[in-house]
Amino acid sequence: MKVNIIGCGSIGAELATALEKMDDIDAIYISDKRKEKVKELIESSTKIRYQREPKDVMERVDMVIEAASQDAARKYVPMALEKGKDVLMMSVGALVDDEFRAKCRLVAKKNKCRLYIPSGALAGIDGLAAASCGRIDEVLLISYKPPEAFKGVRYLEDRRVDLDSLERATIIFEGHARDAVRYFPRNINVAATVSLAGIGFEKTKVRLVADPSARRNTHRLIVKGEIGEIEVSCRNLPSPSNPKTSLLAALSVISAVKKAKENVWVGA
Q1: Would you say 30 and 38 are in contact if contact means Cβ atoms under 8 Å apart?
Q2: Which residue stretches of the chain are H helix?
Q3: 184-217 residues labelled b (16+ CB within 10 A) or e (exposed)
Q4: Buried b vs exposed e over 228-241: b needs ≥16 C-beta within 10 Å?
Q5: Domain ranges of the chain
Q6: In the chain, fewer beta carbons within 10 Å around the N or the C end?
């Protein structure tokens, strides 16, 4: 199996290192504008190669993994699906765009390939997806992060929210998932995953809390419906290579690749 990883940030690098150890992975092409970020990986591997432009290598691979940004997802995911390649997409927030999401579904169906969405930094996605086959009355996602995790968010700057002055846990956003993903594109991708697995962007409620005492990113998923109630809480440690990314999010991508290439899928 040959793969193309788009993006060599913390998740892309960790994924490449993990895939390099798998016997049935023959070649890993990494696409990133900054070749120097890939150099160290290439030097320590016989499988990893640099390919600046994904379009130049897509014909040669079996799977394309987007681990770069929502802009990269919008550009390369449809391109890979058009070529009949399975795609694993990390920047799931891009799917908040209904037209883009519909396009990806249509292109994947036409070309008989799949678009995989990893569970990311949250557990319970499998239970939510199962519950959505029946009646769901409420889905609530509550995320707690240190104030510095929300620095540079225009939504908060426009409302003159002073993150540095917070002395206690403070709700900085409460609304539906569509707005949460749009206003906090780098903070709450998991809300998009929850929406896709459950009852949609408009019906999924999101509450974001900036907590000065928080040392971990915590996500609580609450689902109510005819199944009863599901409540899942994850208190995530950061990735060693990037404090802004939960280690669980990186590992979920590795798990998704394993599932995609295996004949047995546990937790479907």
Answers
A1: yes
A2: 10-20, 36-43, 70-82, 98-110, 125-131, 154-158, 177-183, 189-197, 247-261
A3: bbebbbbbbbbbbbbbebeebbbbbbbbeebeeb
A4: eebeeebebebbee
A5: 2-117+248-261, 125-236
A6: C
In a structure prediction context, what are the per-residue pLDDT tens digits for the chain, which is 268 residues long? 999 999 998 889 989 999 999 988 999 999 998 888 898 899 988 999 999 999 999 999 999 999 999 999 999 999 999 999 999 999 999 999 999 999 999 999 999 999 999 999 999 999 999 999 999 999 999 999 999 999 999 999 999 999 999 999 999 999 999 999 999 988 889 999 999 999 999 999 999 999 999 989 999 999 999 999 999 999 998 777 766 678 898 899 999 999 888 878 887 6
Specify the CATH architecture of the domain 125-236.
Answer: 2-Layer Sandwich (3.30)
Token output for 62 = 């079996």
DSSP string, 32-70: -S-THHHHHHHHT-SSEEE-S-GGGTGGG-SEEEE-S-H
In the structure encoding, which two tokens stand for residue 127, read together? 């239970």
This prediction has a pTM of: 0.92
Beta carbons of 121 and 216 less than 8 angstroms apart: no
Catalytic residue among 205, 219, 223, 260: 219
CA–CA separation, 125 vs 259, rounded Å? 15
138: DSSP letter: E
Question: Has 219 been annotated as catalytic?
Answer: yes
Fold of 2-117+248-261: Rossmann fold (3.40.50)
Place of tokens 């990986």: 41
* Residue 179 DSSP SS3: helix
